[in-house]
Design a protein that fits this description.
40% helix; 4 helices; 2 domains; 6-stranded antiparallel sheet; endopeptidase fold (from Nostoc punctiforme); alpha+beta
């Protein structure tokens, strides 16, 4: 039955071709979703440099800089310096970023603090379990150790 062998070899080649095409499409989608919208290494380091430049600036509720900040005003101001727009509040910033798992966090990612599923604070991941943030009334912008593991991370696009 020569026709059957030919038919099965044609089907096998078509199946291999389909698998290759699916693999290419899947890898393209994966690369597009993880890398294309993320900050470059240079941009991440620039974020940290800009964040550090405001060390010591006083906290003031509702302030958006550059002479005083609240937490989301600070993150918004920092990212604006590298050409990235963020919404005004920490809650809206949390909705505007692509969330990543803690093990995938990178320098320059946003760190969100929540209580009862409501975001109330945001900072910028500085590496080694530290963040840059404008913490609270009476404090100043500073880099400090994360005080809880109950946080989520977001990558600015």
């Amino acid at each position: 039955m020569p026709g059957t062998a030919t038919t099965s070899s044609v089907l096998r080649r078509l199946l291999v071709h389909a698998v290759v095409v699916l693999a290419v499409v899947a890898s393209t989608a994966l690369v597009g979703s993880t890398g294309a919208d993320a900050l470059t290494r240079h941009q991440r380091h620039r974020v940290l440099h800009v964040a550090a430049s405001k060390q010591g600036t006083p906290y003031r509720y509702g302030a958006t800089g550059p002479k005083a900040f609240d937490c989301s005003g600070y993150t918004r101001w920092v990212f604006a310096r590298i050409g990235k727009r963020l919404p005004r509040t920490s809650r809206d910033q949390s909705r505007a970023v692509r969330h990543v798992r803690a093990r995938h966090r990178r320098l320059g990612d946003l760190v969100f603090f929540s209580s009862h599923h409501r975001v109330y604070h945001v900072g910028i991941y500085a590496g080694h379990g530290r963040i840059w943030n404008a913490p609270h009334t009476g404090a100043r912008v500073r880099r400090e150790r994360l005080w809880t593991h109950a946080v989520s991370y977001g990558r600015v696009r």
